[in-house]
Amino acid sequence: MELPKIISVDDHVVEPAHVWQTWLPEKHRAKGPRVERKRWGKFKLKKGAKYEMTEDPEGEWGDAWIYEDKVIYVQKKFVAIPKSATDGDDVSTFDKTVMTMTAVTYDDMRPGCWDAKERKKDFELNWVDGSLPFPTFPRFCGQTFYEADDKELALACVQAYNDWMVEEWCDPSIGINLPLCIMPLWDVELAVKEIERNAARGVRAVCFSELPTRLDLPSIHTGHWDPMFAACNDTGTTVCMHVGSSSTDPASSRDAPAGVGSMVAFNNSMASLGDYLFSGKMVQFPKLKIAYSEGQIGWIPYALERADTVWEEHNAWQNSKRLCPEPPSTYYYDRVFGCFTWDRHGVRSLAEVGENNICFETDYPHTDTTWPNSKEYCEQMLEGVPDEQRYKILRGNAIRMLELDRV
What's the distance, Cα to Cα, between the start and end of the chain in Å? Predict the structure, then answer.
């Protein structure tokens, strides 16, 4: 049987330069996000998932987002595939070595990074017919607008992004992009209204932070987020938490090589899963679905085993059964989605990780992407896996997670 077409539950959209200048109310456009082209020197990743960015008259050209009259983000080659990575647009020559932490312009990136119709072309040749895109300029759960000074403008920016996402990027005539919206993190009641507004027009996924306390927001244990969870529970909206949505990257030490953080990035997903399994929220909101985007899956079987062991063996002094009357793994199966790119080990643990719980992602256009060879990679990864389970991993679980009208 031929491999099922892939529905990728984690890709990344490089927002076109016109988004906020088109979709914001006119009164907000002067201070709203806009793009300027400048020359840039070297970049340095700082604490909080921000960059040290310095203009350099001899540097490389790069398109920068200006917001509230400040430079917030500069487009970079390791986030948006440069044209130089595919010689003469020959995708068989895709060379990730040119995807460096250096500036790039829209003109010099692969158009599929920011143009919906061009993305469709890139995905069709990659055996993908559905894609859930996380933000770039707003960051993984809208931190850019949460950190802004003018919250009236910030709310308008959140709404404008969601309107663009639903009406332009996910235009049904294009037919491949699936809407993933953001919310105003600073006001839970406004967040509820935005979730409900988008759910009414078919959106079934919203971005949230894996560990909100790292953003100086209340934890999920406080009850602060209960109205948001209730809205997601009632509308079938999946809470999608991308690695890095806490603006932190686990590492062994401050001077650890960059690869350490990327290797252990799943640690935040594991900590977050512990929060949800022991918090009682999965009991309180019995239809709540959560997803760990780019969190990978190989760690999940042990995490579930340990959670159940702790629940049983330490209850006398931890009193976990007060909030969770059933073993924590009970609340995982069918309701928590592990999303992965490269994880053959996790697939070999399918019985424990759950055939109804995992979804594949292509991570286009980041350096973890399997594009343009996702089909070939999946054929190798899923060799020997029964057809029914292959369908679930590549497609069926995503359809259920996002409540899609697809087969």
Answer: 16
**Can you tell me the distance from the alpha carbon of 168 to that of 177, in angstroms, rounded to the nearest whole number?**
10
Domains and CATH numbers, the chain: 6-28+110-402 (3.20.20.140)
As a whole number, mean pLDDT of residues 249-276 equals 88
Q: Which residues of 260-289 are buried (b: 16+ CB within 10 A; e: fewer)?
A: ebeebbbbbbbebbebbbbbbbbeebeebb
pLDDT at 49 over 80: no
pLDDT band at residue 119, thresholds of 50, 70 and 90?
Answer: very high
φ, ψ for residue 124 (rounded to 5)? -65, -35
Q: Which of 366, 371, 307 minimizes the C-alpha distance to 333?
A: 307
> Each residue of 337-365: pLDDT tens digit?
999 998 989 999 999 999 999 999 999 99
Position 23 scores a pLDDT of 98
At residue 109, the 3 state secondary structure works out as strand
One DSSP character per residue, 218-247 reads --GGGSTTHHHHHHHHHHT-EEEEETTTTS
pLDDT, mean over the chain: 96
**Residue whose C-alpha is closest to residue 33's, from 25, 49, 21, 22:** 21
**Chain center to CA of 94:** 23
* Unique residue bearing structure tokens 């009970």: 330
Nearest to 68 by CA among 162, 161, 152, 148: 148
